[in-house]
TrEMBL record:
Pfam families: NAD_Gly3P_dh_C, NAD_Gly3P_dh_N. Its main location: cytoplasm. The keyword NAD applies. It comes from Erythrobacter neustonensis. The active site is at K189. InterPro entries: 6-PGluconate_DH-like_C_sf, 6PGD_dom2, G3P_DH_NAD-dep, G3P_DH_NAD-dep_C, G3P_DH_NAD-dep_N, NAD(P)-bd_dom_sf. The gene is gpsA. HAMAP family: NAD_Glyc3P_dehydrog. NAD(+) binds at G11, A12, G13, S14, W15, G16, A137, R253. GO terms for biological process: carbohydrate metabolic process; glycerol-3-phosphate biosynthetic process; glycerol-3-phosphate catabolic process; glycerophospholipid metabolic process; phospholipid biosynthetic process. The lineage of its organism: Bacteria, Pseudomonadati, Pseudomonadota, Alphaproteobacteria, Sphingomonadales. This is Glycerol-3-phosphate dehydrogenase [NAD(P)+].
Length: 338
């Protein structure tokens, strides 16, 4: 038991459960909201989450609930639902001023909103922060060293409240005030991880994967610039750091989805009855659309969108390779802008 104030975590998938376990490591109470009653029951009775994080033994100071009103008195709440339901779930939270730390990575389909805009509308009065970076849930749950960006719309004053609440010896947040940049990094890297998985599934080699990471990062920077994100933010943990992690490992659901697509599986089959979330599959269509409407060139994102819609992966890669030659740097583009 600890005298430190309890923290709330909304969403008991693998990431919400891992964050709850990390936060409880100093003995504090953590209240964890789960969508499924059977997850609540297993966490409270057996201190395990067999559906989403079966490898972890959870702390007895984590209490699970299906009732959002239980969170009314908490000053700090992490939000870790899938991106597409974040606004809907938060609408059930009592409207009192608190720090709301968004940990989901995606863009809302239909509205094209980033999570901070969805959260601000659903939970007015909250002060938003975004926690994002290279973070496989099973490693955080196991206490392995991890560093993240913690972007605070409330600036240094909010950071002073949140950093001691969230940092632990092996979990290290870095301060930023660029909420938009932190969200764009996490959302775009999921789509690029699908692209890298496709290349792996097609056996196109490691040169191709490195090229995709570098050219995909250029797309992330261009899109970020269009939305007012800082290049420095995207060059850090929540952008380049997460891109490298997710594009290099079958531990990533997005990379694995892409690999299966490259091996010839159909997106519709891979997405049907899926329990875990591969956010890039939901983000790709809305990101491709936003980029086109804003005139931002994102050919790799468009290629992923096309493959998810059923286009032949090998043909899509051939089209990418057949694009006109161009300058690598925007500043050198001149006439080479195709
Ligand atoms: N798993 C990771 O390593 C990791 C790391 C960083 C960020 N994230 C992000 O965290 C978010 C959550 O991912 P995850 O990996 O914890 O999920 P998950 O794939 O492990 O589990 C799916 C989650 O969706 C929930 N869910 C399904 N339908 C729902 C509904 N209608 N309403 C509310 N909840 C519903 C389930 O209860 C479960 O919590 C995603 O945006 C993901 O990108 C995940
Ligand atoms: O398994 P993924 O692809 O959702 O990636 C998990 C995390 O976002 C990695 O930082």
């Amino acid at each position: 038991m600890s005298a430190a104030p309890a923290i709330g975590v909304i969403g008991a998938g693998s990431w919400g459960t891992a964050l709850a376990q990390m936060l409880s490591s100093d003995g504090r109470d953590v209240l964890l909201w789960a969508y499924e009653p059977e997850v609540v029951a297993a966490i409270n009775a057996e201190h395990r989450n067999p559906l989403y994080l079966p490898s972890a033994s959870l702390s007895p100071t984590i209490r699970a609930t299906c009732d959002l009103p239980d969170f009314a008195a908490l000053d700090t709440v992490l939000v870790v639902t899938p991106a597409q339901v974040l606004g809907k779930v938060l609408a059930g939270l009592a409207r009192s001023p608190r720090d709301l730390v968004l940990c989901s990575k995606g863009i809302e389909a239909g509205s094209g909103r980033l999570m901070n805009d969805a959260a601000r509308e659903a939970a007015p009065g909250s002060t938003i922060a975004v926690l994002s970076g290279p973070t496989f849930a099973h490693e955080v749950a196991a206490g392995l060293p991890t560093a993240v960006t913690l972007a605070c719309e409330g600036g240094r004053a909010q950071w002073e409240r949140l950093a001691p609440a969230i940092a632990r010896p092996a979990f290290r947040p870095y301060y930023s005030d660029d909420v938009t940049g932190a969200e764009i990094g996490g959302a775009v890297k999921n789509v690029l991880a699908i692209a890298c998985g496709v290349v792996d599934g097609l056996n196109l080699g490691q040169n191709a994967r490195a090229a995709l990471i570098a050219r995909g990062f250029s797309e992330m920077l261009r899109f970020g610039e269009a939305l007012g994100a800082e290049t420095e933010t995207l060059s850090g943990l929540c952008g380049l750091g997460d891109l490298v992690l997710t594009c290099s490992s079958t531990s990533s659901r997005n990379f694995s989805l892409g690999k299966a697509l490259g091996e010839g599986a159909l997106a519709a089959d891979l997405m049907a009855d899926r329990r875990t979330v591969a956010e890039g599959a939901h983000t790709a269509p809305v990101l491709a659309d936003l980029a086109q409407r804003r005139g931002v060139a994102m050919p790799i994102v468009a290629a992923v969108d096309a493959i998810l819609r059923g286009a032949d992966a090998r043909a899509v890669v051939a089209d990418l390779l057949a694009r006109p030659l161009r300058a690598e740097l925007e500043s050198d583009a001149g006439d080479l802008t195709a």
